[in-house]
Amino acid sequence: MRLATDLFASAQATVRAVGAYALFALRVLAAVPGALPRPGLVIAQVYNTGALSLVIIMLSGLFVGMVLGLQGFDLLQRFGSEESLGTAAALSLLKELGPVVTALLFAGRAGTALAAEIGLMRATDQLAAMEMMAVDPLRRVIVPRFLGGLIAMPLLAAIFSLIGIFGAQLIGVQLMGVDPGHFWSQMRAAVEVGDVMEGAIKSAVFGALCSLIAVHEGYHALPTAEGVGRATTRSVVISSVIVLLVDYLLTAVML
Amino acid sequence: MRQTRAIELGTGLFVLLGFAALFFLVTQISSRQFGFGAEGYRVSATFDQVGGLKVGAPVSMAGVTVGRVEGIEYDFDRYQARVTLRIDRRYDRIPEDSDAGIYTAGLLGGQYVGIGPGGSDTYLVDGAELQFTQSAVVLENLISKFLFSKAAEEGKE
Amino acid sequence: MTQQAAAPEAPAGLAVRVRDLHYAVNGRTILAGVDLDVRRRSVTAIMGPSGTGKTTLLRLLTGQLRPTRGQVEVDGQDLSRLSRTGLFALRRRMGMLFQQGALLTDLDVYENVAFPLREHTRLPERLLRHVVLTKLQAVGLRGAWRLTPAELSGGMARRVALARAIVMDPRLLIYDEPFVGLDPVSLGVVLRLIRRLNDALGLTSIVVSHDVREITAVADHCCLLSGGRIIAAGPPRALQASDSAEVRQFVRGEPDGPVPFHYPAPDYAVQAAAVR
Questions:
Q1: Chain C: residue whose CA lies nearest to A37
Q2: Which pLDDT does position B109 carry in this prediction?
Q3: How confident is the model at residue B38 (pLDDT cuts 50, 70, 90)?
Q4: Where are the domains of chain A?
Q5: What is the pLDDT of residue A198?
Q6: pLDDT at position A97 over 70
Q7: How confident is the model over A3-23, as a mean pLDDT?
Q8: C18 and C61 Cβ atoms separated by less than 8 Å
Q9: Chain A within 8 Å of C92 (Cβ-Cβ)?
């Protein structure tokens, strides 16, 4: 009996959380037009979330690509089709690893920074001060950060994938001796513009989700040191789980 | 104002790099797809068996990709599979008595439509149909044929 | 009800008029029937022990919270009848100083003070600079214009916040606990600024504080908030001379009295026995 009521309570809390997220998302979207006349604010956030994540994204892309080169070579060699290494690496990077790993890194690097920054603004009354200065914090603080993440993510994912492909090429061709002609030509024959677009759509969706989760958790953080810390943690955990879940859904829809 | 300049510079660099990567992926890494409608012309062919042929598979002549498979439907008038091919505009001199076959790229690769040129002086145009076709080889049929013939040979001996 | 019929215009000379204000959150009553009049151009102090809802009262006055019951009129406008746009329009005529200053941490001092101007006006940069520097001069921090909030002491941060609060030339200025955590010198500076700005700019000021001695030195009018209602109001001297035990306890800072030293607790023996 106790268990049933507990389950019901937690189910209710989950539904409420989903509802709160949806309402917050609607409020953010409704505030987007109001933020457009100030592109400078969005640019600053593209810098914060995108340009500052560039090094970690490029390094990770290189190593993921190199691992793909090794593993892919080992696997394909068993079937005698090492020449397909380029195809295998490019497709897995463009369609899956690029968008997903970038989103996870984004959640860890930029998402936490966003949640902590906004949580701290909440804790130190900066958001209330804006309200008192007749400035809507949603329009001034939240929307630029949301748009910044939305713009930065597909670009980061594209950079990640491209560097990853070169990383795979580095291992496969330079180290393992796959014929470079085969590597590139098979890749070009098999990869289509649609595959690139699939990755771009995925990463745009992830960008919107990750930045929305980060700003939501920060915006609704309890105004204490502990509350900000918890908001930061929650933003990474929720973002990661949601990215993997939505990745499955998007893949199922677009395949 | 020096700070804003650094931000603008960094952001600009990042955005340019991102778009350059995207552009490179679209143009260099991927094969260009045939555009919708505007480019190329359509021809059709019917097969007894299409096997694992998929929409989007390449159409090739002597190993050169000249088009893509645009549609695969079942034709109830002939009880055969009707495959629509979109041929790139550049390849507009394919003899109308050419034959089409479904082949497999490599042992385990995907299937594609191969066109062997005929000898006619008139060429395929939009809406034409390829008369001579060779169906896909289904591996199971091949194996069972092989086994039966082996068994028959052994029975003779 | 007659509330609708009650004069929509505040009586002349009143900047804020609060009637029968109730506020409860999660079933806990915080304010239970507050009546408050703030005369224009006066410095009104709202005093009271910690946790009696002083900050809540401020947030109700500024429309950050909605009352459970009762009426708040600011500048003759009933807050409950204002839309969000109307509320924002009203807030442009209000300034508020938050407890810790609440400066925007990603902007420097100059940009913090310029923030409301950049958001609400299209002043040319030269004029904007003139306005901002004048306000910074008024709080004595013109030289600190390129410092970031992290480099400011608590007193300086509050003075910058004060400059920001007056940059739009508000008619009503609200201070939430402006003296907390200040050293005696900074405190004296802030105290004098409150009075000087009030008289020089013709403002109405509301100061929430529990520092009785400091605030009674500058206030024209004092209200004592306790247990969710105003238990005494009047000029500072009248409050000090009050014969109400509760008022005397607060004004003189006696540890025990009508406001009990002990938080309500069950019988000691019962509680001790319950914890094993």
A1: C119
A2: 62
A3: very low
A4: 39-254
A5: 92
A6: yes
A7: 87
A8: yes
A9: yes
pLDDT digits (tens, 9 = 90+) for C161-187: 989 998 888 989 999 888 887 888 888
Q: What is the pLDDT of residues A201-224, one digit of tens each?
A: 999 999 999 999 999 999 999 989
| Share above pLDDT 70 across residues of chain B, in percent, rounded to a whole number | 87
The verdict on a CB contact (< 8 Å) between A134 and C91 is yes
Q: Contact partners of C by the rule of 3+ C-beta pairs under 8 A?
A: A
Both tokens of B148, joined, read: 């039966």
**Measured between alpha carbons, how far is B71 from B73 in angstroms, rounded to an integer?**
7
Rounded (10°) CA dihedral B61, B62, B65, B68: 40
ipTM of the complex: 0.79
Q: Reduced to 3 states, what is the DSSP secondary structure of residue C78? A: strand
CB nearest to A135's CB, from C89, C99, C119: C119
* Neighbors of chain B with 3 or more C-beta pairs under 8 Å: A
Chain A contact for C83 (CB, 8 A cutoff): no
Token pair recorded at residue A46: 């593209």
Instruction: Please state which CATH number belongs to domain C2-93+170-274.
Output: 3.40.50.300
B35 in reach of chain A (CB within 8 A) = no
Q: Where are the domains of chain B?
A: 1-30, 41-143
B57 close to B113: Cβ distance less than 8 angstroms: yes
User: How far C191 CA lies from chain A's nearest CA (Å)?
Assistant: 21
pLDDT band at A164 (very low <50, low <70, confident <90, very high): very high
DSSP H helices in C121-150: 125-138
Does residue A126 sit at the C interface (CB-CB below 8 Å)?
A: yes
C163 touches chain A (CB under 8 A): no
8-state DSSP, C76: T
Contacts of C115 in chain A (CB under 8 A): 133, 135
- List the one residue out of C140, C215, C214 whose CA is nearest residue C206: C215
